[in-house]
Queue: 3 jobs
Job 1
Amino acid sequence: MTLRQTASAAPASEAAPGQTEDRMPDDLIAPASSIFDLPALRERLFAALPDGADEATVRKLTVRILGEAQTAGREIIAAAFEKEPFGARRTTRSYTWVTDGLVRLTFEVATKVLHPRPNPTEGERLAVLAVGGYGRGEMAPFSDVDLLFLTPYKITPWAESVIESMLYIFWDLKLKVGHSSRTVKDCLRLGAEDYTIRTAMLEHRFLIGHAPLAKDLSRRLWKDLFAGSERDFVEAKLEERDARHMKQGQRYMVEPNVKEGKGGLRDLQSLYWIVKYVHHADDLSKLIDKGVFLPDEYEAFCKAERFLWAVRCHLHLAAGRANELLSFDTQVEVAARMGYNDRGGRRAVEWFMQDYFRHATQVGDTTRILLTSLEATHTKGAPIFQRIFKRAPKVKDGYKVVHNRLAIEADKTFLKDPLNLLRVFEEALRTGLLIHPDAMRLIKDNLDLIDQPMRENREAQKLFLDLLLKHGNPERALRRMNELGVLAAFIPEFAPIVAMMQYNMYHHYTVDEHTIQCILHLSEIEHGNLVEELPVASTILKSGVNRRVLYVALLLHDIGKGRDEDHSILGAIIARKVAPRLGLSKKECDTVEWLVRHHLLMSDMAQKRDIADPRTVRDFAKAVKSKERLDLLCVLTVCDIRGVGPGTWNNWKAALLRALYRQTKRALEGGMEDLNREMRGTEAKRILREKLPGWSGAELKNETSRHYPPYWQGLHYTAHVVFANLLKDIGENEIRIDIHPDEDRDATRACFALQDHPGIFSRLAGALALAGANVVDARTFTSKDGFATAAFWIQDPDGHPYEDTRIPRLRDMIRKTLKGEVVTRDAMKPKDKVKKREKAFKVPTHITFDNEGSEIFTIIEVDTRDRPGLLFDLTRTLANQNIYIASAVIATYGEQVVDAFYVKDMFGLKLHSKVKRDQIEKKLREAIDRGSERAQG
């Protein structure tokens, strides 16, 4: 029998090629025959295989022919998808069609050429099934190929050989195959033990082989495994979802995982699994007839599904591999592939990500509706609140409890009073009940009732403020109001920031979610849950502030984002209109407007200026004017930073804000003379004498008289003690180093004492950069006898203090660099590359000179893209211009850094000459540009 005859003659009881397998689907993105012509390819393949060829030759020829067809088919799909960038469903079906063809033809080669069995025994039956996402027929360009090889009894040597040959061909085709070989009994046993296996088999699809075996599996699964276990399956899938969200991030993160993240494809698939398991339906549209979904809800869900699948397919094609993380660099490329453009002062990527988060929210809404319908049939357990408190709380007139959720008794009566659209959220907070999806639908469908007269209604204003101030968990009401569109309807100015992405590495959340997170943190402080972590903010709130002002200011502080104007100034203009509509008095409105306009002031002063300089505190105190504003601004600043995302708040920022607050409070209450530099110097010297009890009078006199006044003002007494010991009996060419953790600041303090010379700051910065340390703050001082004392606060590349075990190596690297054993400039080159995911950001460079912010220094502020080696490049440039650097304050915001240098010229004067300032700015920009070119590769 020739190979061609073998190809057309299927073994008895097998599904013959040319029947179901060869039927061309019509829902592909290009004609099926152009993507993968199965009959024609089969004929070509078997015609090319020589009679009597060995297995290696057959495999090689098979891989070549199928590989060519695979590549051609994928290219056709990708080209068609490029022209139809939202055609996700047809694209996933097309990749499935290609994979089906590869699997079927590989099976035919393995069973008819490599291991033929014209008359197989009963035990030599084999069925190949697609399972998981492949079984569902949804494949992204580089999705895994999950296969189940099904046998009637224990696997035979023949079946083992067939499977092995198929896998070798798949691997040579570069397919990522997940496979298992089981009997029907194995499937039932393992599915009973493991819900992941059960879920994969739920979506099995017969591909080729012994069809009756596949039918038997399907029948047994539904009869012996799935039936009666619906509730257990739903609970297992929900637990799995919650664990996944906990791992990926409960909120909508700005670098989402399209597959596993909240509102992503895995959540969509969980819905399909649950619907199929419970309702025995492959199509969610059937749930419209069952009354679970309304037609417009189903349509919104379908749009979200198409969008998310399109994003995933573009992600795979952009990376040339399986990639599920929508990282910053891929967001730009996917946005371009999907046809987004810059407009309205915002980048294309920001519009794209706003759509992404809106669709992810829609997935959450659909999930909530389905789960509530399952509660109604007791297929899903009640919410945790109801499990703890068995008896449902008593609700006010007009409401009822349905399946442990707050429902509306009569829709028409409810809608007669538009204020009920706010009251329902208050009732939900009061009772602790979740709102029933039917009530949510009613609210969403009648948002037009929230008009201007309602917004100006006194009772509506009070209701809204009560949601913020009265019930103790305002973030819960705000989040649900935001998801349903009520927040944007009641405050139309809030609408533009809903789901708005902040395209930077600093913010972890969308603007609306960041706002809600800030209010959550304020509520937590009010409840006394953060007294140890936030003693100042906790004390302020305990002593009493205007809560109405604070909550409204926090709600509105970022409302001006997303436009070309400064968001603080625009936000203040918006707050001037919104605050009166929320029922605040004129004085309260003025304070809210001031807080919104200046909500970054305290953070900037603390992180971008030297708060040891009396002028910094004096200027800040003049801007704040009163302790009431200082208190409000301090709490708002703390909540704003903590609301950026996990890990943003740390002891370093806490220490800076705490010091600025206490010094400013002292100045406002006791007068500006409390900031006098000489008074502070006298006190610092007194403390030093106490901390050095073993020193002689002469030694103490020498130490307290060798330093200029800024030294005593600029360092904590603990650093004075360290430097006193380093300088004691120091030799002319000696370098002394002390490195110890500064636990109060989440950093490691590195103190240096050595003979002073030009460019000392740059040399030290270079040495630390070479050692992989990030400088977060620095001070340098020159003593009257010619020694330099420098204190650097550093963190490791992950933003943490150095562990004790790593400090000796750090010290050794610094010492080698300072002694000239390592040339800093050359050694830095391999280290200053910007990571790929950061390259998409556009960070313009701004350089400013400030002669008013300090009494004795010019402040040079450089705002630019962060990268390794930047501080070294900047300080080296200043040193080459004969500029003396007294201190540097480094504030990092994701990919952006603001370095503020307190400097003098070579004569010890401020930089008054504009010509000189322009020259310095030019040199700094050249250094930044050269470094950026190196970093960008």
Note: The CA atoms of residues 540 and 642 lie 17 Å apart.
Job 2
Amino acid sequence: MKNTTNEIRQKFLQFFQKKGHTILPSSSLIPKNDSTLLFTNAGMNQFKDFFLDPKKKKYSRVATSQHCLRTGGKHNDLENVGYTERHHTFFEMLGNFSFNDYFKKEAIIYAWELLTSKKWFNIDKNKLWVSVYKNDEETYKIWLNIVKVSPNHIIKVGDKNNSKYNSENFWQMGETGPCGPCTEIFYNYDTKKNDDFSKFLENKNENFIEIWNIVFIEYNRISSTKIIPLKYKSIDTGMGLERISSVLQNVKSNYKIDIFKKLIKQISCFSKITNLNNISLKIISDHIRSCIFLIYENISPSNEHRGYILRRIIRRMLRHAYKIGIKKNSFYKIVPNLIENITENFNFLKGKEKKIKEILKIEETQFSETLEKGLKILNIEIKKISNQEISGKTIFYLYDTFGFPADLASDICREKGIKVDLNSYYLEKEKQKKQSNIGNKFYKNFNNIININDTCNFEGYKKNTIKSSIKYIYVKKKIVSLISEGEEGTIFLDKTCFYPESGGQIGDIGQLYYKKSRFIVENTKKYGNTIGHIGKVITGSFEINNFLYTKIDKFYRNQIEINHSATHLLHAALRKVLGNIVTQKGSLITNTRLRFDFSYPKIISLSNIQKIENVINTEIYKNNSIKVQYCSLEEAKNKKAMALFENKYDSIVRVVSIKNFSTELCGGTHTNRTGNIGLFKIIAQSSISSGIKRIEALTQSQALQFLHNQESEIENISNILKTKSTNFKEKINKLIIQVKNLKTQVHIFQEKENKYQIKKIISNIEKIKGVKLLINVFNNYDYNSLKLIIDQLKKDFPSIIIVLINKNNNYFNIIAGVTKDLTNYLTALEIIKIFIKHTNGKGGGKNEIAESVSSNVINLSKILKIIKSWIYSKLENKKDNIHE
């Protein structure tokens, strides 16, 4: 095929390389320098700092093919995917950028040359149309007089609602910040209908598609009403690779270009669908690409943040897979074929196949049950509606109770022609969010009470004591100039050897002192870019600008360092034993223990726990040195340093390495050699959320003490069992068999006792209006046996009401049973409610059997008379309908 998608990408980059542009690789889907974005959603994201401050620029001209994901916020394409020919969750954005270099004229000429030159894309000029901002006369004249585009092929787009700069052709980064007019280039599939372009923005004529947007960043928005010119001007462009490929491959749908055509055909082979235009096939082909790239970025499905987006995409994909006949719990089996297809264009994905398949398998297993329950309830609710609109409360109930995604419910309703009241859904969601935040307000704001715009140099990697100067003092959340004996507060210094709580490592403790004044540091925390020493003055006083000495508790720090280095060993050992599917999700490192959270979809067996311990202790016995070096972020990645790359890192990073076993980006403190760890012991493993595991461990003397405690427990158990510790397992097995035999004997005796009691109490049966009624009171009888007695009496008597009470010390249990033929007249639950009303007891049940317990029974005989009277009244008019 001419102009394959790969060839188009390469041609674009080659063109701009010839024009003096530096070709940069796509940045991560996780934005490094923008906490406002969940995912990279445009080519300009990685250059945002350059637009805001041109002095930071490393290059004057750049071109990229950027991986993007649009699934939330302003750019939320998820619900449109599959229903239009152009929308995707994952896509590539081709872009060329100029940072205070060329501007409007060159950007437009470059675009036109690339699109129309026979050497490059060779698109017929007559098929291209242009839009410009109405007030941008300069751009209009460049198109008209320099590029020589016909005035009939240029449309001026004005402001909406008479609001200045509120236009489709005026781009803005946000409510404030860099902005400017833009010009867009459109392709017309049907040149016979040229006059339709003037109406394009109103009626979205499918014959026209926007293929390139060129933004002229020449202003800075100060406020909603004020815009000023920028000293430095820049160019930001974007052209969707999938869109331009559809043009150059002469197809009207992105889903018919080479990369999707092959993928869709492959998916259809596993389904019952032969029509390759099927919406579900499009959705699956789009979503599987997003899943693969997100998992490659070490994102795991979860119920929050980026993991929640991945889970939504997976679940939407699975729902459509089942819809087209791919069997439940089997989609993951076709994933290797799809990955192989996709990695033809992205070689760097190879090696992640196993991890991707494993994660999708676990998600599919978990979602099958959710889908089944959710669909059942949704279909019931759909049958109830009369106005072709379903309540948002129903959608929220499905989401809150079963984890059934709202967009999935909306998808299903859309297919059935039913609207969803999303406003009420979001109201319900917001209501729950506010309720859940009530208890978190204090904790959320606690560390933000002190807000200091200053820095503090940390010099504690090599020093335990240094001389410093006091810059700020806070007492009871207020800034003061002096803190005296007995007062608690937070002291901020110009430099410190105290490590602040960060990266999972707890803060140092120690003391600040000069002359006879002493401040005991009980914790150290970060406040923005500065460090606070939290504690209490025990002698003397401290003033702002005082010089003092900082001294950490060296033993406390050493224990933390040992546990931090052990955590690095644990991370590496987990990946060695369990595979590269393991990704760090968090940690806690203290002076007494360590905790490590990571993504892993399966239960970790005891044998694997022991393997992990063996691997770590082997590294400890080797007594390897632990080295620290500083290098660029790119160098660290080339060394395959492990990191939480969702975090932000400076251009120069700190790398901690343990020979060839572990290499991680880390700002924490570490021991010098692995031998200092002494011993490593895992004491607990747990699952803290779906797909996220937690391991807790001990080192050195704490690990040894744990083993000693276990030995003591075994010895105590052996003494109780009156056997040796080497034989107690055998003794326990014998006891289990004995207990089992005793239970069997007790059951036989209880059955005999129940038969005896039934014979005894049936003489108390009386008839009320042709219905048998048995009320009996037991003393200290086996409670479970009462249920068995009721079951037997129901079998023996076709139409009977049974009320059994058991007095046990200060408690009264009541069980009511009613045969099915009587439940139209009265129920066991109604009988129990009478008992609860007169005793303030608790209970519940069903129509045929119900029970209650109470400790507040003053006059039992009186209550039973009330129950009997109520039963009589209920049956009084039913005589003709009841068997005699």
Note: The chain has six domains: 5-256, 257-382, 385-441, 447-457+469-538, 557-708, 759-881.
Job 3
Amino acid sequence: MSETNTAAAAETAAPHRYTAAMAADIEARWQDFWDTDGTYETPNPTGDLAGDAAVAARPKKFVMDMFPYPSGTGLHVGHPLGYIATDVYARHQRMTGHNVLHTLGFDAFGLPAEQHAVATGTHPRVSTEAAMDNMKRQLRRLGLGHDKRRSVATIDPEYYKWTQWIFLQIFNSWYDADARKARPIAELVAAFEDGSREVPGGRDWAALSSAERADVLGGFRLAYASDAPVNWCPGLGTVLANEEVTADGRSERGNFPVFKSKLRQWNMRITAYADRLLDDLDGLDWPDAIKLQQRNWIGRSEGARVDFKVTDTDAITVFSTRQDTLFGATYMVLAPEHELVDTIVPAAWPEGTHDVWTGGHATPADAVATYRAFAAAKSDVERQADAKQKTGVFTGAFATNPVSGEKVPVFIADYVLMGYGTGAIMAVPAHDARDFAFARAFELPMRCVVQPDDDRGTDASTWDEAFVSHEAKLVNSANDEISLDGLGVVEAKAKITDWLTERGIGEGTVNFRLRDWLFSRQRYWGEPFPIVYDEDGIAHPLPESMLPLELPEVDDYSPRTFEPDDADTSPETPLSRNEDWVNVELDLGDGVKKYRRETNTMPNWAGSCWYQLRYLDPHNSEKLVDPAVEQYWMGPREGQPTGGVDLYVGGAEHAVLHLLYARFWSKVLFDLGHISSAEPYHKLYNQGMIQAYVYRDSRGFPVPAAEIEERDGKFFFEGEPVKRELGKMGKSLKNAVTPDEICAEYGADTLRLYEMAMGPLDVSRPWDTRAVVGQYRLLQRLWRNIVDEATGEVTVTDAEPDEATLRALHKAIDGAGGDLAGLRFNTAIAKITELNNHLTKAGGPLARPVAEQLVLLIAPLAPHIAEELWRKLGHTDSVVHRDFPVADPAYVVDEAVTCVVQIKGKVKARLEVPPAITEDELEKLALADEAVVAALAGADIRKVIVRAPKLVNIVPA
């Protein structure tokens, strides 16, 4: 009989068997029911989403996934791994008495949609909304229990109105270092006006022009525009934040070269919060690896600021963690981008300048310009790499070492970066490997100021390498006012720091690797800045009444891009070409005037910095969020001192991008009194990745994985051998499997079970379509244990279950319940499978209590079939809000445990003992056993080691 005929015969014999067709019907019906019934609508304690007061009075649980970006290609089976996991967890939490908030929105602004629009000529809004619709369809088919009333999209003007509003809160704030919090900028202005705070530069506030006041305030605002070195990517036509540049100096998106350039851009003063961002990590329930990445990115280090005078008016400020070696500084190095370079470069080379210092150039200006172009073409990683050939050039200027009075030459070199410290170093070549190599290359002097602990002596000119030590004593470090000789490093640091501070030429300070967040992009598809400029170029915030400032419809939304390697270019924004939108007449409170709008847009990170707050109160048109609602869902509580989302699941790749930015925004909003939670996400969980095999032909190109033929352990495509490797899943690798395919072949519940059963959630695992059938069969056996496949009738009985079944049931409830609460879904499924197998082998109809608890047990994992079976068992309510089964402790404990008795490490007996047996009782029982007595043969016993109830180890004398 053919396979088709066999399947047809089976279907005829068992017309009510659980099949893919039946699964599709069940799943579609219950998804419709959930939508119509509002099953997943979560009540707030107040406001327009207030609902069932009894439900709102339960313990709350706020569960979130990282924002998905709506891709035009839709989902593959790797995408919903985290979404299914949070859905299972949220369902279990509902069934254990929690009011659960679980929803999903879309992070829909950003570069991919704009690039797709440029390539296809389709407006990014059109393609993005189509992609969202497709993803919503796919996600609905998976049976995800989201409160759809709360879903948001960052491209909705009613959403980005509040993104713009938050930007204005940050713009209109400054960080008070004494109070360690943000305060309204109006309070700073008032302090300048009444003289309680000195205006930088010592001038009278009333005497300053509007432009001068704006410049002063710009030095304090938490959102500010400045001319600063930026990461310019000609291939994308935009600037990038440090976090968006890869380790090899290329754009994260598109893999284009990135260059250093100076442009006027918006920045967020995230550095003001560096200490708090570090300190508050301790109170978060995050993976240690993510905390470490954030700590390293923030990069706190203690040292001293030291000023080296160049002229009467100019000084080079350095930050050093080894200020104790100041007497050993024999030259200085500035980053090529350092702002002082242009100021200090003389017209001609000073008399006696070494030829090796000039790079063969006629003037210092020529040398500096040539070297700057050379350095700009290299990434930060390349610049810091331990290259054998050290490069640089003399600026023609000298600085004065403040402790020795010695004039030391000032160089620029690519191994010094503006992104760390002050962009300048005091070079101590005897005690730093990079400085040593540079000094050798440029024939610069070395001075030993830390006593070597070997036999090399203190003449550094004879050394083959630098001597680096944090424990050795200081030498050759004295002048008429201070001596560090003989001191250890710690003592010397303290002494020299006090000396520098007393003379006003330095001070102890803390430095951070973290840089301010570059916050503007030269793109179209992003949130417009709510900023306009007057005729004097002064920035003015729009009043709240003018929000949202909507993104205009334009015909040409392409950014101007350039040849990827052309560093001598600058951005041109798409919005700048829309003159009717850019040039406006507005009344900002002092009459109608002409203004020019900001033509940059916000980065795609903006909308995801605060979306957890909008989920709480998505339809509030008057406030960012109702304070009572925010306090209920996210406020501080026992074990969560800084508040935040109870569980946040997403990829580890966002450790220093989204997660750091969102923490910063939360802290500003907390300081200003808008929210009660100082942290956005209390518990973070990083799910692993679903991988897939990639098959490559002889050219190395991917070929369709679905068309591969396997023969004797080898793989072939159209008859030709191919290589197999494990990698990501995606359309470009021709190995993507869509959830639609699996749902059509097996059903959504099977897909959900398979993804959760593949292994621990935080570990990457390979996809194997052939293995999906295992979970399909589990559901078929589950169905068969309750429903007669021939008649469709329920087969349960009202008889009492036997003790073996009760023990199997309650052990499964106890184990699976703990696993679901702990995100150990694979082991929960294993325990449910073990129970179902026990019931199958036992044969006969299931007792009703066993059947009902089995259905409730699997409901978080496979909700559609659970709903259907629950209804067939005679219930009219949904399993979603039913109580999760509770294990009876009496049936969880084993009746007897096998105890192994060893003598000299060899097993001599096995005893069946009660699980609660004491160590004394177990020892007596073991020593009295006939086999043990015979094995000892009267020998004395030196020691008995008891590990009740499973082990006794007897050591004869």
Note: Residues 894-956 form a domain with the Ubiquitin-like (UB roll) fold (CATH 3.10.20.590).
